[in-house]
């Protein structure tokens, strides 16, 4: 299936080794409207650089510890959005931006058309196949319960969590299961819906690999599109079927049944087959 030209997305690229001032200057020089916004969650018309005290690395000739930052995109869409993202990663690599275990790559996907049943299905599929999705990330601390900023959705055994989600009567109840205490620090952040009208995918480690990042975006968009569509005539009908614990963590089934993006599936199948995800 071709990448959606209708579903919006945005990214947060956590990095270090490039100062805020230089990053803003070089982004604007390259034709990407960009500003230094300090600390804010406000959606902007252009790119913004914001502070993040959790990102730290060593940089410069002295090798001293330096604070990092987040480069946050405006709302992007379709293949043009992916091309923009590729160009920004090319610039970051020219600037020798770096990532380490303190960095993440967060993707927001527009939730237009995502109703209660869609939120339930999206959360259930992520819970059921969380172990398979763990294999798609390169950093071991982004798997299972290894990172406090993207904790597991499996707060109980899989069948129990799936049952709780099935019984939800409101989107707020779905959020209470997926993001207990309204904490956004889970692999899937449903609470972003009320602030940004998006669903946030927080599991991916920081990266300067444009191909890997873009295919992760494609994967996230495909998940939301499947949860929104759920039509009997859809190419794969699994999204409209009851989600059970049977076959959990089998990444072949995840791709065949739910991820209707050939490029993303090919990329991550190859990565898993090559042992990238452990």
* Secondary-structure element string: EHEEEEHEHHHHEHEHHH
Q: What is the first-to-last residue Cα distance?
A: 28 Å
The 3D shape can be described as globular
Query: How many beta-strand elements?
Result: 8
Task: Give a short synopsis of this structure.
This protein has helices spanning 20-29, 78-94, 116-128, 130-134, 158-166, 171-178, 192-196, 210-229, 251-257, 262-273; strands spanning 8-15, 34-38, 47-59, 64-72, 76-77, 105-110, 188-189, 198-201.
Features:
10 helices; single chain; globular; 278 residues; 8-stranded mixed sheet; alpha+beta
Could you walk me through the main structural features you see in this protein, from its secondary elements to its overall organization?
It is a single chain. With 278 residues, this protein is α+β, with helices and mostly antiparallel strands. Helices cover 38% and strands 18% of the residues. The protein is built from ten helices and eight strands. It has helices at residues 20-29, 78-94, 116-128, 130-134, 158-166, 171-178, 192-196, 210-229, 251-257, 262-273, and strands at residues 8-15, 34-38, 47-59, 64-72, 76-77, 105-110, 188-189, 198-201. Strands 1, 2, 3, 4, 5, 6, 7 and 8 form an eight-stranded mixed beta sheet that branches. A hairpin with a 4-residue loop joins strand 3 and strand 4 (64-72). The longest helix has 20 residues, at 210-229. It is globular, with a radius of gyration of 18 Å. The model has no long low-confidence stretch (mean pLDDT 91).
